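Hi R.,

Here's the chain you asked about this morning:
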Amino acid sequence: MVDYKAKQNQMFSTAKSLLDNSDYICVAHAAYYACMQLVMFIWYYKLGKTEPELNQLSSQNKQKSHNVLNNFAVNFIMQSNRASSRIDSATVRDKMGQLKSLRNNYDYKELDVSYDDSKKATDYADDIIKTIKKYI
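And the predicted structure, written out as tokens:
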């Protein structure tokens, strides 16, 4: 079984490789899911939550599971005793939103994918991953 941290490393490596090879169409997708792997690590291993709990919260709050997971990750960071937790939680929240928007645009719309947006996706993911890793 491959754990969430290993999946995160592989997905982020894939995103960077796609960018380096000018294969932009899937960069935002891989970058986004690299971040989601760490968010899922927090949910399952740091918070001790389960998939049924995730499904229940998603249903109760009428939110998609990714939104629930991201909110819990932001709150997990915010509740730490670190002096930078307020800034770090805002970084994760804001950049995950921007990265998700890029992923949605390129996964679900017929748009030309540019180097600049693909680079933004890997930069956002890099910032998110580095920030989350300070807390896990």
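Residues 78 and 86 are 6 Å apart (CA to CA).

Let me know if you need anything else.
M.
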